[in-house]
Amino acid sequence: MNLSNRVGSRFKTARLNVSSRVGNLSSVSAAASVVMPPCSGPLRRVVVFLVAISISCFVLYRSAESLHVVPGSSSSIISRIFPSLDSFKSLEIEEPKLEDVLRRAATRDGTVILTTLNEAWAAPGSVIDLFFESFGIGEGTSMLLNHLVIIALDAKAYSRCRELHKHCFSLETEGVDFSGEAYFMTRSYLKMMWRRIDFLRSVLEMGYNFVFTDADVMWFRNPFPRFYRSADFQIACDHYLGRSNDLQNRPNGGFSFVRSNNRTVLFYKYWYASRIRYAGYHDQDVLNFIKTEPFLSQIGLKIRFLNTAYFGGLCEPSKDLNLVRTMHANCCFGMDSKLHDLRIMLQDWRDFLPLHLKQSSGFSWKVPQNCSLASLRRYDSMDEDESEPPGDSFFFF
């Protein structure tokens, strides 16, 4: 028996019962006004409840039939009856646009600090917590968090970012899962690195300068005074040969400062397109291949490489903690090894700070430990870079 027949039979029964007691009143009014013995109070409530349920079911059924809704699609019925619920729902899950996030985070000269984050690095006690800790214990670094934008590569990373920070942007890629730990040179790692290069190009096209930093780069001092004023593109190194303009330096894509102009936009497009010519290589290797190609000189791109004395890493640690700006947990395979050495690095900095106040110069890093440097080629020191900063900071925070 279908719903309309059941409802119809209930109405017929109700009319018969009511007619015998009160005459020409309607079925609903009669059910509400029937005089019953005191002992039948619970029964009366049950009858009223059943009648109300029957009427509700009948109304919903007729609404669905008139709206031509597919049976079982209750959410569609409700959204038709209460359209304001859909507006509220879309408003609740709406995420900010990239342009809005960048504008709120930018310095007065249009510079932002960018890092990427996935679920593996976003877990409590993982890389992102140590990253924030370094800003907290660094010299003149805590204020820089006002200009940091975290680019979340999956939903859980975005959720964690919202817990920790005010400038977050969701960059999920359809059909690609970036949530897990991406081991060096795996397929997931390569996709993640090239997605990053393409995204950074879009930031430049919007007119923003950026410092890109991996989240496993610890910020111990403000790096901006050590950037070169005349360079378009400047990048940290796995191995630094002694001169900032030497194209034989070995760059590391985990830390860079890039100014937005036509030259850098063309460069990032060329870099990204070159992944096809050098299939199977990651962005850092491809940069090494193209850095001497004629195209870069034809567009007038000015490249400088950052001295590891200031921008060190586990590949080539900075030797003087009085000079260090950042330290990168590069040349490291596996999350456990990385976290172990990062925690020691942070403790080294804490131990150094009291000595720093006394102008001590004999303190050195206790890392690397678990991170392997077996594949790193060792070179003798070459010419010392300039001892004075390359230029006064022109950033306004």
Automatic annotation (TrEMBL):
Pfam families reported in the protein's UniProt record: Nucleotid_trans
Domain Nucleotide-diphospho-sugar transferase, residue spans: 144-342
Cross-referenced InterPro entries: At1g28695/At4g15970-like, Nucl-diP-sugar_transferase
Stated name of the protein: Nucleotide-diphospho-sugar transferase domain-containing protein
Source organism: Eutrema salsugineum (Saltwater cress)
Upper classification of the organism: Eukaryota, Viridiplantae, Streptophyta, Embryophyta, Tracheophyta
